[in-house]
Design a protein that fits this description.
The chain is an all-alpha fold. The protein has a domain at about 30-99. It has three helices and no strands. The protein has helices at about 5-35, 40-65, 70-99. Helix 1 packs antiparallel against helix 2 (about 40-65), helix 1 (about 5-35) packs parallel to helix 3 and helix 2 packs antiparallel against helix 3 (about 70-99). The mean pLDDT is about 90.
Length: about 100
Amino acid sequence: MGVTTNSWLELPFKAMQLGVEAQTVISLRLLKLTFGGPSAFAEAERMVSEKALAAMDAQTDFLSHALVGRPHRASSRALTLYRHRVRANRRRLTKQFQA
């Protein structure tokens, strides 16, 4: 028998995790932008393009779940998509400052 999760409890927790990870990425990006130079310019361009792409991907994923009769999963999936993107940025930026 599989374990079921309460999506109403899971959703706020995922949102909180996203918020914490996003604040870390914002801090690391601000630090990078403070140093200036070509890498800062590239990071500024990257954050704008990533936001647009992530929003489109999340909207597509959200609508696909809603249209097939699983609207209860749509919000959770959208948050998961954002968290994966934010986590990848955190790892990338952390490595840059560790080197």
